[in-house]
């Protein structure tokens, strides 16, 4: 059965999207406290942001400061707020698992304050009774904030500093310099991964993340996720071509993609990426905390493992071509630099 895939722009309207969305905060921009119905990752595309987090049943607020290249996991139900105290814009893209969301394919947000806030919804009479307030106090608390999603705060306001002595790792750099990367291919690029090994909380979220930086004309070798997880791939920078192949021997997707576009790769479909001359950066998630990527090229690929008789019979090739093919799969080929 033929399956048509598409790459679409991640929604640039705050807090909406097809399993993904962008948040843009101008200087002094403040995203009101809220929680969501879906777990997700936030990846900082530009700028610096102060983030406050309150976990369910917690009496403490944890504050972190994240910057370009950082990734922050956000479990569903966790209350967060976001503040840009810098002098330049801050942009973060969110990608998450929405199959169990109220509206599959979309994030739904619940705000604690503002015109969409929970307190406003309960109205001042309930607020007064619950908190022991008089009518004026309850009305002010429920309705004084005229903003909906994002408000601009006054200049000079002092927000909390980053919390000290945080027990659990809450964010990390995934866009790192080359020497610090998990996989480095000279002349080709880097790969970094964040799994349950790095963030134990990802076990409960059922997510992991990967960052790939390809140099000009480099290729991310074909692979698929062998555990049946779904990948969502976001083009964070640059452009190139993505080719996806399913079970019918033809490309399900084969097209140019550019910065800001997102595509979802179905279970077990294989994918490869070829960067344009200026290179390409990809941020992706899979809906498992411990993904198993099966490489389709190189020394750990199936081509290297199959016995000569099986490989020759399967591909209907001569022993001589079998030897040539095997000789090309003796090294790691996760990223292939441009061939001269």
Automatic annotation (TrEMBL):
Domain of life from the UniProt record: Eukaryota
Give a yes or no for keyword Disulfide bond in this entry: yes
User: Which UniProt keywords are listed?
Assistant: Disulfide bond, Seed storage protein, Storage protein
Please list the residue ranges annotated as the Cupin type-1 domain.
5-139, 172-323
Q: Which CDD domains match?
A: cupin_11S_legumin_C, cupin_11S_legumin_N
**GO MF entries:** nutrient reservoir activity
Please name one Pfam family that this protein belongs to: Cupin_1
SUPFAM superfamilies on file: RmlC-like cupins (SSF51182)
- The region annotated as signal peptide is none
> Which family is annotated?
Belongs to the 11S seed storage protein (globulins) family.
Q: What is this protein called?
A: Cupin type-1 domain-containing protein
